[in-house]
Predict the structure of Bifunctional protein PyrR.
Amino acid sequence: MRIKKQIMDAEGVRRALTRIAHEIVERNKGTEGLVLLGIRTRGVPLAERIARKISIIEGTMPPVGYVDITLYRDDLTYFEEKPPAAQTKVNVPITDSKVILVDDVLFTGRTIRAAMDAVIDWGRPQCIQLAVLVDRGHRELPIRADYVGKNVPTSHRENIAVVLEEVDNEPDQALITESGH
């Protein structure tokens, strides 16, 4: 894999998350009933950052949890052994909540479908919305993001790599990478 282009630097990531936070508050008319759930791994710190930004805007921070989709993946039959499940943490009732799923990159939609299955196992939300830092296209399922930091059309040879300080111990950025085939 080689880095082809930086599409967001740390400031670009910060601005995108600030805009997403404002859009979430506007669309949901405040924070009442909101629950942010980050999809492990990079969706978790993104959800926490968005929640902090919402608390600055509204004066109240929505609860934040995280969801592990490992056991909900539709490709588990390809593994000889089931991969170990990480954890899901939801400390508030999901039923009748407005759940905002947060992830770093939206690609085929399969991760989001798995996350929705996991959420519904926890309760019946009023609605599920999706916030992503980067939407790269190439959907295989009819899923779209409600809040997008940046739309980046990519080829199938390209990937999007999101680097976050909390996970990677490097400055935030989003990169287009390309396989060497």
In short: The two ends are 9 Å apart (CA to CA). The mean pLDDT is 92.
